[in-house]
Amino acid sequence: MLSKILSKDECAKCKLCCTFDSYDLWETPCITPSLASKILQEYAPEQQFVKKGEHFLLKMKKEKDVDLYYCSLLDSDKGCILGDDKPFDCKIWPLRVMALNDTKVITLSPVCPVVTKKPIGEIMEVARELSEQIFKYADENPEAVKPYLADYPILVVESSKYKETLI
Question: DSSP letter at 66?
Answer without folding.
Answer: S
